[in-house]
Amino acid sequence: MPAIRFAALQQKLNRKPSDYQPEKLRISDVFGENVFNHMAVREYIPGEAYKCLMEAMEHGTKINRDMADQIASGMKSWAMNKGATHYTHWFQPLTGATAEKHDSFFQPTGDGVGIEKFTGSLLVQQEPDASSFPNGGIRNTFEARGYTAWDPTSPAFILGRTLCIPTVFVSYTGEALDNKTPLLRALQSVDSIATEVCQYFDKNVKKVVSTLGWEQEYFLVDAGLYESRPDLKMTGRTLLGHAAAKGQQLDDHYFGSIPDRARQFMRELEYESYKLGIPVTTRHNEVAPSQYELAPMFEEANVSVDHNSLLMDLMNKVAARHDFKVLLHEKPYKGVNGSGKHNNWSLATDTGVNLLSPGKTPKTNLQFLTFFVNSIMAVHDNADLLRAAIASAGNDHRLGANEAPPAIISVFIGSQLTETLNALEKLEKGKLSPEDKTNLKLNVVGKIPEILLDNTDRNRTSPFAFTGNKFEFRAVGSSANCAQPMTIMNTIMASQLRKFKNAVDAHIKDGMKKDDAIFNVLKDYITASKGILFEGDGYSEEWVKMAESRGHNNVKTTPEALDFYVTPSAIALFEENGVMNKVEVIARHEIMLEEYQKKIQIESRVLGDIAGNHILPTAITYQNRLIENVKGLKEVLDTETFNKVAKEQLEMIVQISDYISGIIRNKEDMIAARKKWNKVEDIRERSIGYRTEVFPYCEKIRYQCDKLELMVDDELWPLPKYRELLF
Ligand code: ADP
Ligand code: MG
Q: Distance between CA 292 and CA 282 in Å, rounded?
């Protein structure tokens, strides 16, 4: 067996679960230990500055220079007491990863000594060079400089020995260059209008936040095996590899007992998460072998998004200590389930009410119905934008692949709520009669059970499902930054609630009573949004057909899905809600297309290399052995016997030649296709060209390599096989 595969396998065989033991056993003793949370703020920041920071943390109010200096000084003392030596503005550029540039607190004072210093201005703003981050042309039109600005609504934390300060990242002229800025704007937008709508029901509501609870799926793979697979290393997924004889068909991994090595990794990951205030609560095996899931309690969306980004970063750091690699790619292995990241989404008031949770009284239930129906309407009117929000090269492999929700956006609400909506729709339009009112109170809203969480009524095939007290956006990819889907979700909700409020207010102005007005508008929405509801099997062929007849889009590839970002109506939506201006939207569109095209380009190059440098030589070596063997047979056997027994072997030799020449030809054609499309300036065209003319060669080459894997002597095969990676 080639040395590298042999060494990797032997290493894996010898691995024991790590002897990791958490320092403290009680989670409450460590939770938030490395977070500059309310408790730390109270301890380290004096009177007025404390109030000022609390205001900023809760309401995003501005902090003046003097206060910022005091806050910075307190933050520095706290961080240094915890052993931090450096600080960084921590941000989420459009590369999808997180970025940090560490600066030391220590500053030489020029006389051979120095002091630890951290001022308000260093806390509030920095100027990293923006030119090395994607900017979609904003840099060319304006200036290369960008700056990061402190986001006090997400608490600072310590990672290793560095104080990390969550920040936004914007161009010198104020355009967003990151994932956080549009999210914060969308959250602001939905807050203001949802608060107004809540005031129909409860005047005490002063603020509405969006909540997010993500569920992160991932694969673990042994670090040594990972190192010996150039494709995993360079692209995060296997570009070739025949399916193992056993996959996930026995369903024996799902919720099964977690192997010790993986469990030790999870324990440490959880412990590290707790220290950073990430409220991880769930861990279990997923459907595919070596696939797992981790989920926290939900949190305010901005904090939750930061926590997910932080966690993704943390995962590989911790994995290294257990000789694992974490695969966050949406489809690391062909033929077994890929990974997603469900985004559980809701809205909650500062009075402690989850707006998507049915209440105890008809009044609270009317509020619930208002937000419920408006959510459905928002998805109905903006399904394409939601599709765009989850588009990525990796996720293209999942959506519609009979394992993940399809690329068609629809909403599942369950039978009870379907009945409720049907009943509401039947009401007479206009002023409600006393009988209608009684009927409504007793039989419609009055009958919505307080708890709808019925696990049996869940439809796992829906991309957007109501699960009792929240909507679950299931089509998000595992490597995605949740900021994108959350920005879109909250923007479309804000826009929808604004329309709703205008319509209700218009009725009220015409003399209708408030409740009647709300019912009338909701009734209209129920009728108008019916087409987006689907309760059946989202993976089925019938649904694809039905969706088509309903006029739903079924866009399977990223470059096409991204078109929905830049339609005039999408741009207007972003602008009207103050989420992004046209320059920002266009820039983002370009960045995402470019990322897509580059990913396909890298995959194509890596596969070309592996096929040429690993697979072809191996196939030729094996073929030579067969040829030698046949020659020998010819020597020792009489012609008649030889002709009888050597036939299959000769066929094998020819078959191998077929695959070899096929790989060579496809590789050449693939390179020619890349050359052709590389010349195309327009990034949208180039991306589509890569999708339609380069990508298919990868599939063809893979097919031929995988066939060879089945024929060639296992002793010669250079790459770890699926059975070795997955089991
Ligand atoms: P599953 O989808 O695996 O069956 P659950 O339905 O139990 O899991 O919960 C999934 C996630 O939903 C959890 O991470 C939880 O934090 C989140 N969640 C629960 N309530 C809300 C809410 N009001 N807003 C956002 N997320 C929520
Ligand atoms: Mg879920």
A: 11
